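Please decode residue identities from the backbone states below.
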């Protein structure tokens, strides 16, 4: 008897399951509510078919048989009804979630739908919230870069026109014979050479900045000692400091090695030191300090620029920022790209760069992770 019941129930279940899978395959593009209803109907039908078949085959007859069949039918209807209610709730929650997504405009953020959602839909809602947050941050970065690009174009256009106009005037004077005494000719030639060097440096900075913004900056990191990087940077700017009448000092304690591209990191440090020299008055001091703890190396450059207005501090590393209100540029000024390049290089090393007002000037600080002693 048990084997007969098992065989009948299994056979009917397999037939109904096959029919259910076929129906689900046909409805795979329909609402999830319809698919849930089909699943519930298949489950209930398989159960009812087995019970009905066994009831009919068994010796139960008359009123008891009718009672059993009635209970089975009512139970099946209740199961299907509950499945349909659950399906409607799932469909309603899905519709609410879709409505919240469709309500998002380019100028608005995603607002999660009110009320509770099923766990899976709640997970999707949180994922959508995070995705829209990343999109918003991306749009803000894009707007910031576009603003920086426009400002850069304005600055560079001005800085290109000024030396080009001067060189054109000197070249025309030399060609027309307006200037013919040897001393003035030598001075004109020397000035043209200086302006050409300035333009060459500006083009180099623009190329470097474009690589950073495009994510094309290729580093060749290796274990390096920051003391050597500092020494090389100070040696490279010593002539500029002497010409400006600014004293350069360096202070360094025992520092663990860092994993970095020595050439690019040295360029970032030189940009900071050159910036400090340019904005420190004659007979002032620029101090480079190097300290470290177990996990972080801190490289700071302190100058005597007189400080930066608090409102300008967040913009110091923006492209083409010069802070004219606090820092009057001199004839040796750059294109305002040095600090932006320094930030890009430091961040490419997974470090951080910041600036604060301190004493008679300000202090720029680079933070880099030190190498694991075990590596």
């Amino acid at each position: 008897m048990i084997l007969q019941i098992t065989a009948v129930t299994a056979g009917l279940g397999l037939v109904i399951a096959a029919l259910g899978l076929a129906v689900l395959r046909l409805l795979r593009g329909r609402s999830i509510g319809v698919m849930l209803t089909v699943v519930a109907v298949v489950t209930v039908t398989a159960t009812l078919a087995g019970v009905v078949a066994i009831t009919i085959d068994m010796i139960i007859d008359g009123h008891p048989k009718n009672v059993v069949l009635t209970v089975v039918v009512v139970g099946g209807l209740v199961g299907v009804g509950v499945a349909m209610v659950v399906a409607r709730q799932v469909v309603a929650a899905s519709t609410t979630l879709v409505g919240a997504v469709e309500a998002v405009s380019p100028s608005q953020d995603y607002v999660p739908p009110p009320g509770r959602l099923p766990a899976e839909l709640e997970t999707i809602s949180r994922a959508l919230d995070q995705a829209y947050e990343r999109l918003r941050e991306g749009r803000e970065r894009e707007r910031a870069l576009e603003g920086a690009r426009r400002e850069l174009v304005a600055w560079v256009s001005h800085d290109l026109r000024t030396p080009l106009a001067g060189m054109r005037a000197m070249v025309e004077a030399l060609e027309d014979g307006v200037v013919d005494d040897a001393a003035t000719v030598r001075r004109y030639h020397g000035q043209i050479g200086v302006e050409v060097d300035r333009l060459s440096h500006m083009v180099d900075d623009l190329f470097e900045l474009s690589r950073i913004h495009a994510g094309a900056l290729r580093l060749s990191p290796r274990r390096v000692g920051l003391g050597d990087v500092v020494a090389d940077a100070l040696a490279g700017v010593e002539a500029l400091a002497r010409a400006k009448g600014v004293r350069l000092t360096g202070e360094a304690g025992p520092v663990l090695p860092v994993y970095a591209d020595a050439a690019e990191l040295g360029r970032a440090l030189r940009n900071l030191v050159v910036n400090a020299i340019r904005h420190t008055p004659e007979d002032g001091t620029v101090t480079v300090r190097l300290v470290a703890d177990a996990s972080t190396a801190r490289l700071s450059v302190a100058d005597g620029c007189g400080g930066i207005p608090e409102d300008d501090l967040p913009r110091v590393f923006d492209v083409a920022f010069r802070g004219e209100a606090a820092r009057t540029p001199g004839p040796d000024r750059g294109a305002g790209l040095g600090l932006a390049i320094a930030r890009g290089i430091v961040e490419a090393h997974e470090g951080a760069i910041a600036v604060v007002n301190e004493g008679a000037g300000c202090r720029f600080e680079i933070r880099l992770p030190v190498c694991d002693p075990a590596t």
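Observation: The longest strand covers residues 361-369.
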